[in-house]
User: Fold this.
Amino acid sequence: MSEKKNIARAAGVLGAATMLSRIMGMVRDMVVSRLFGAGLYTDAFFAAFQIPNMLRRFFAEGALTSAFVPTFSEWHTTKGEEETRALANVCFTALTIVMAAVTVLGIIFSPQLVHLMFPGFSGNPEKLSVTILLNRLMFPYIFFVSLVALCMGILNTLRHFFTPAISTVFLNISMILSALLLHDRFRVPIVALAVGVLIGGVLQLTLQLPVLYRMGFPIRPNFNLNHPALKRITLLMGPSVFGVGVYYLNITVGSILASLLPEGSVSYLYYAQRLFEFPQGIFTVSVAQAVLPSMSRQAAVGDMDALKESLNYGVRLTLFITIPAMVGLMFCATPIFSLLFMGGAFDYAKAQKCGVALLYYSIGLTFVALVRVLVPAFYALKDTKTPVTSAFIAFLLNFLFSLLLMGPMLHGGLALASSLSALGNMLLLLWFLRKKIGRFGGRAITVSALKGIAASVPMAVAVYWIMGLIDWSTTGRRLLKGGVLGGGVLAGIVIFLAASHLLRCDEARDVVALVRKKLLRR
Assistant:
């Protein structure tokens, strides 16, 4: 099977597993919004969860994965299974020691962390104290999820994608059950969510270990901390923290600045970000995770033509998926919140404010997605400096735009600043990558982008008209709302695919062929 088909198949498996996880995540957020709304306690929870979650995204899923996978893949290709197994155990042992220390320090210094990251909470003693309590309860999550990320890197290199992608389902289930069953057991009901996060982290790790054992990689302590590959991974991780994590750093900066805005702003951005990450998690992260092992293997054997082909295909597949998703989210932002979140402590005014944030986040969907695909190309080539340079510039852009826009646009301005920063980061990465490896099919990529935009125009018209058929400010009528929103999404997909077919989009044919093959197998 060609590398292109491997990437498409892996992305399909990841997408299917992640879709289930994201659906459960949406159910989780619906439960949270109904029980706790968007105010003091949700601001406190989302802020407290932001700290270990930020570390997870920077170090675990970001720097660790980007540094570990290319090195582990090269080791697996050139050193044999015995040496590779030893490397896996050395990395697991070292990470366990480091993350245990980080967790203890995080719990001890939670008050200082909260004061530093959310200065706007200092004027509300109750919000501040609840945030510190929740952060201390949830900080051990970073320990478990970092080990999960390492297991994910091993399994993805071995071409097993399903289990790592589906593991977050257990986090969501744990949080849902804890919120529903335990919220009336605590003086501060939202503490139940923190308990759910901790249990979910344990479940995620527990799910990975038996799969590794079955695939011939049982995890055992190995204290050979002078292992040469471990040193290389550590050196790669330093700059990778900033290179991969700049998008999440921008989101964190947005939350910090949102703490200075009217109450509820942190929650509006969180709910919008969660829905924004739905297509991100299903499609773009899946493509990025699928293409990284392929590019790492190709770079390890010096096959630059194959690496360029994999990168080109990953970019075109990302454009094909994210352009219509971006348009759909922009037109469906407030209707989505009206259908899924309105009720209980969450009214239409909150739905509109969340919709504004989602609209501005959606503008950057394609830019963020392409960054996720382009950065691994640099790491596959063992270049960690270039993404850091680009990321630093993007970070400065985000901070500047945030300060300029948060005054007139409030939380919407912070979301728009994130999108503009992602655009800058994407353009810089494309420019640097072309200088580094030469042409990698820019004309084909441009044609794919133009076809995706053209196919999205009739889709946008249809979705806009369908969304205007009912009044989304009314409570209840969920069956009607669901029918209209679902019908609009389905119509949009059908129209986009039909237009893509007429425009002869290669990616559309690949996706249809993959789905058809899967159905025939069943």
In short: The mean pLDDT is 79. DSSP finds 19 helices and no strands in the chain. The CA atoms of residues 238 and 310 lie 26 Å apart. The two ends are 20 Å apart (CA to CA).
